[in-house]
């Protein structure tokens, strides 16, 4: 693998925009988005942790989703934000491979956690009497470990497909982070088979999960007819939040990974959705639609920040 180092030791990103003014405005916007991602998700994790909500499976998984969102966006956002201010947006070969690994590791894990959260809602709504036994603490921990291990394997496959390729220039990636598709375009060898494997691997995971999630939520919504009006309202509000996240996250992913090896100029803008917008919306969607989290926040942060005023909030 030494010859590849002689040829191309790093890559240059074209970045999101080719316009200085737009880049400066975007720098402010994306810095704000990234701050919201960090603070919003940390706030949820702290609330769940300090409000003793970790015992309930739904919040146990929501806590992990927030953690994954922070990691997932941190793989691409900080570099992209800094790059908006510099002329030469370079990345080393190793850094590039690390980004491919991170995007697919945390992205894959996020997909599997969303599936687990759908399963959790399904058990809670369709098998309420067995919920406590089915989703006991030990099983939840095993399931969660499974999501991380699955994400790791998915990611290792992606990296293994590109790490051994030869790059002899040009080395400009038409993107703002390293992903398999844009890198394959720069390889000096025929990548037809590799790109077919990439489409099969990422495409199957994204489309398969998306279809699975839509079916699960349909089953849940159908079974809600048997519930009382109050139970239906609560379940709908939680599931509505989940469905919103699934569509915002998976729509762009399916668009990106489900097609043969063609790269569109829109790919970069589409990627902004699942690398930045979704991790930012998750905390908002899950907390605004969720009375328990809101109450826990009022209790915790109300008392801490506003003293006696906090008590009025309750």
Give the gist of this structure.
The protein has 314 residues and is mainly α. The chain has one domain: Up-down Bundle (Rhopdopsin 7-helix transmembrane proteins), CATH 1.20.1070.10. 76% of the residues lie in helices and 3% in strands.
Describe it:
- Keywords: Cell membrane, G-protein coupled receptor, Membrane, Olfaction, Receptor, Sensory transduction, Transducer, Transmembrane, Transmembrane helix.
- It is a multi-pass membrane protein.
- The chain crosses the membrane at residues 27-48, 60-81, 101-122, 143-167, 205-224, 236-257, 269-288.
- InterPro entries: GPCR_Rhodpsn (IPR000276), GPCR_Rhodpsn_7TM (IPR017452), Olfact_rcpt (IPR000725), Olfactory_Receptors (IPR050427).
- Its main location: membrane.
- By secondary structure, this protein is mainly alpha-helical.
- It has one domain (2-304): Rhodopsin 7-helix transmembrane proteins (Rhopdopsin 7-helix transmembrane proteins, Up-down Bundle), CATH 1.20.1070.10.
- 76% of the residues lie in helices and 3% in strands.
- The protein has 12 helices and 3 strands.
- The protein has helices at residues 2-7, 20-50, 57-83, 93-126, 131-134, 137-163, 180-184, 192-223, 229-257, 267-288, 291-306, 308-313, and strands at residues 10-13, 90-92, 172-173.
- The chain has a 3-stranded mixed beta sheet.
- The protein is globular, with a radius of gyration of 21 Å.
- Residues 1-6 and 308-314 have low confidence and may be disordered.
């Amino acid at each position: 693998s030494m010859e590849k180092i002689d040829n191309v030791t790093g890559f240059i990103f074209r970045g999101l925009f080719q316009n200085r003014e737009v880049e400066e405005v975007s720098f402010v916007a994306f810095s704000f988005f990234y701050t919201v991602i960090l603070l919003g998700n940390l706030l949820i994790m702290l609330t769940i942790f300090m409000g003793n909500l970790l015992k309930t499976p739904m919040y146990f998984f929501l806590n992990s989703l927030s953690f994954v969102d922070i990691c997932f966006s941190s793989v691409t956002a900080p570099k992209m934000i800094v790059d908006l201010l510099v002329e030469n947006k370079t990345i080393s070969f190793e850094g590039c491979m690390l980004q491919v690994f991170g995007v697919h590791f945390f992205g894959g894990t996020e997909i599997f956690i969303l599936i687990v959260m759908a399963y959790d809602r399904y058990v809670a709504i369709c098998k309420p009497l067995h919920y406590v036994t089915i989703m006991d603490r030990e099983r939840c921990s095993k399931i969660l470990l499974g999501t991380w291990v699955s994400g790791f394997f998915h990611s290792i496959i992606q990296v293994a497909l590109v790490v051994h390729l030869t790059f002899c220039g040009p080395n400009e990636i038409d993107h703002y982070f390293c992903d398999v598709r844009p890198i394959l375009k720069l390889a000096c060898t025929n990548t037809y088979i590799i790109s077919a494997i990439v489409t099969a691997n990422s495409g199957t995971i994204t489309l398969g999960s998306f279809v699975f999630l839509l079916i699960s939520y349909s089953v849940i919504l159908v079974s809600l007819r048997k519930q009382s009006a109050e139970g239906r309202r609560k379940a709908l509000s939680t599931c509505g939040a989940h469905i919103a996240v699934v569509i915002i996250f998976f729509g762009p992913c399916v668009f990106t990974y489900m097609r043969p090896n063609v790269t569109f100029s829109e790919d970069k803008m589409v990627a902004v959705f699942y690398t930045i917008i979704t991790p930012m919306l998750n905390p908002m969607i899950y907390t605004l639609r969720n009375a328990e989290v809101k109450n826990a926040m009022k209790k915790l942060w109300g008392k801490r920040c506003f003293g006696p005023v906090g008590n009025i909030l309750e």
